[in-house]
Every structure is written in C-alpha cells, then in structure tokens.
Amino acid sequence: MKQSKRSIFIFMAPAVLLFLLVFLYPVIRTSLMSFFNVQSVNSAVSTWSLAGIQNYDKLFHTQLFIISMKNIGKIWVYCGIATLGLALLLAIILTLGVRLQKFFRAVIYMPNVIAAVAVGYMWLLYVYNNKFGLLTSFFSVIGWEKMAQFQWLSGDNMFLSMCIAYVFSNTGYFMLMYIAAIEKISPDYYEAATIEGANVFQKFYFITLPLIKGVLSTSLVLWTTKTMGFFALSQVFSSVNTYTPMMYTYQTLFGSEISADSMNAGVAAASAVLMTVVVVVISLFSKKFIKDEGYEL
Fold first, then answer.
1. The domain at 63-289 falls in which architecture?
2. Is the dihedral of CA 54, 56, 60, 65 positive or negative?
3. What angle do CA 40, 76, 107 make, to 5 degrees?
4. What's the burial of 43, exposed, middle or buried (CB within 10 Å: 0-12/13-18/19+)?
5. Could you tell me which of 90, 127, 272, 288 has the fewest CB atoms within 10 Å of its CB?
6. pLDDT of residue 258
C-alpha cells in the first residue's frame, strides 16, 4: 500500500508542479499585483508600491473601462441567448434522425477550427463588404435594395455585425455539447411519452430539458469564460462600440495611445481579477440553481 501511494505521488508530481507553475503562480501574482502600483508585468516585486484598492477605484472611474464592461455585458446576454438558443435548436433537429446529419454537424462546427482572427476578417472583408460582400450580393439578387445598401460596418452597426460573427463562430461548439447530452438520454423515456400521447414540445419540456440541465449549466459557465476572454473579434471590428475589458487589459498592460492608463500593470491586473470574479460568481450561480433532474422509469 505504501509503495502504491509512493508511486501515485511520483507520477502525479510532474503534473502538480506544472499546474503550480503555469496556473496557480500567475493567478496569485496577478491577484497581488492588482493591489500595487506596478509599471510592467515583469517588474521586480521590490519595485512595487502599495496602492490598496486604488487600481479598482481607477477602473470604475475610467470611462473607457466602463464602456467596455457595458459592451461585454451586452455580448454576454444578446449573443448568449442567440448562440445557446440556436445551438440547442440545431442539436434537437440533428438528433431527430434527419438525413446527412453527420455532414450538417461537421459543417456547423467547422468555424470552431478556424482561428477567431481569420473568422473575423472573413466576415469583415467578404461578408460585410459594401461592394462585393456576400450579404450585399444576396440582397441585390432577391431585390431587397434597402438591405443591400445597409452599412454593416458603420459605427452604429459595428456592434451588431461583430455579434453576428461571434454567434456564427461559437454555435457549433455548444451544439455538439447538447447533441452529446441529448443522445445520452434513454429512448425509453420518449417511447413512454409517445404512448401517453405527448407531442414534440411536451417531450422537450418534460424530458429533454430537465435531463440536460447539467450540460446547460456547464455551457453557461463555458460561455461566460469565452465572453470574458473576448478579444480577437474586438481587435478586428475595431471600434469604441466593440471595445471589451480584455482589450482594455491588453492595452493597459502593454501600452496604447487609446488607453488612459498606458503601461500600468496594476490596473491591468485589477481588470483581469474583476473578469475572473465574474466567471466565478456565474459558475457558482449556475451550479446552485441549474441542476440535473434524475428521472426513473
């Protein structure tokens, strides 16, 4: 038994050490850094000066950061409803035995294997282009001139355009999660419901939805994590309307003419900590209020 425990420790030691170095140490250092005045991320600890909560106070008095938080809130809500709702709808359709379902699953998931920057520029240059873009050409062909002349990349519409691209690039990921969860449900539940005269909507509401609540909870956490890390499309669709906290953190950490706190690692760390807190709070909320319901035949 002692030999077995020793062997387990030996095999786990490299992974534990790697975890401590790659994950735990940066988290602790960033959390501490958020309470100090730090010039750059690689500044020696001896050069840090205590700031208390001044970095956090500065964030909430910086207009650009407030705008970024409002933007990320809208992205989380609006894109979240669209992405998760569409993913669930497609998952249900593609588990009903439709023809070529494997092909459709692969096609819908494909944007997830493409870099976010490439997806962003694809939409920017080839879909939203006002001269030869896909949407302009499509609406011109069907005679919908008003939509053909719609300025997708104007300042007022940039946020909408970015959200459409974001939903497009994430739907497949969550769709596969829901498909896996739905296919784990025993067909006996649906057969019994059919015998009782339940329709499609009743089967979904009383069987499918309760039995995939655990996956719905997980998808909400993953969606929050993805949203808090929203960066690439914000860079591509560069606008105040598309500015996000991750963009603010990056520019504050490495310096930018746009950022009011250029090269201030302490403020950047405070921003990162706040985003982490948001993810943790939503994770705890989803685990507490969204739980699986076990059914028995």
1. Orthogonal Bundle (1.10)
2. positive
3. 105
4. middle
5. 288
6. 46
Give the start-to-end residue ranges of the domains of the chain.
Answer: 63-289
> What's the rounded Cα separation, in Å, for the pair 235 and 139?
28
Residue type, 93: I
CA geometry: angle at 271 spanning 16 and 22, to 5°? 15
Burial environment of residue 8 by CB neighbours within 10 A (0 to 12, 13 to 18, 19 or more): exposed
Q: Looking at residue 229, what DSSP letter applies?
A: T
From residue 47, how far is each of 36, 40, 50, 55, 267 by CA, in Å? 10, 10, 10, 16, 16
- Please give the pLDDT value at position 241: 81
Where helices occur in 123-157 by DSSP H, the ranges are 134-141, 145-148
* Nearest residue to 83 via CA among 162, 157, 152, 163: 163
Alpha helices in 20-100 (DSSP H): 25-33, 54-59, 63-74, 80-93
Contact status, residue 87 vs residue 262, Cβ threshold 8 Å: no
Distance CA 77, CA 84 (A): 10
Residue 29 Cα distances to 23, 38, 255, angstroms: 10, 12, 20
143: its two tokens:
């005679």
The reported pTM is: 0.85
Helix 80-93 crosses helix 158-183 at what angle (to 10 degrees)?
40
pLDDT at residue 262 in the model? 60
The low-confidence residues of the chain, meaning pLDDT below 70, are 1-4, 255-262, 292-297
Using alpha carbons, select from 229, 247, 57, 77 the residue that is nearest to residue 167. Answer: 77
